[in-house]
Design brief:
Blueprint (H helix, E strand, L loop, with lengths): L1 H8 L5 H10 L16 H10 L1 H10 L8
Organism: mine drainage metagenome
InterPro entries: Winged_HTH_dom (IPR025959)
Protein name: Transposase
Length: 69
């Protein structure tokens, strides 16, 4: 997050500040242990239909981008 802000926005913040922003936005600083090799396509489609629109709307209200890594 800190490197992304510096690179994309030219804004430098401390790791603590970035962590506080993430927490305020409802995100945790945890990284996934591993990538899911076995995905349930129906569950992914259901998530995209039910959960993702709210996430996208929240990002839009915050004028934020969603980075899929």
């Amino acid at each position: 997050m800190v490197q992304l802000l510096a690179r994309e926005c030219g804004v430098e913040v401390s790791i603590w500040t970035a962590g506080r922003y993430l927490k305020a936005w409802g995100f945790t600083p945890q990284k996934p242990v591993r990538r899911a090799f076995e995905r349930d396509p129906k569950a992914v489609a259901r998530w995209l239909k039910t959960e993702y629109p709210a996430i996208r709307a929240r990002a839009k209200r915050a004028q934020a981008e969603i980075d899929w890594g």
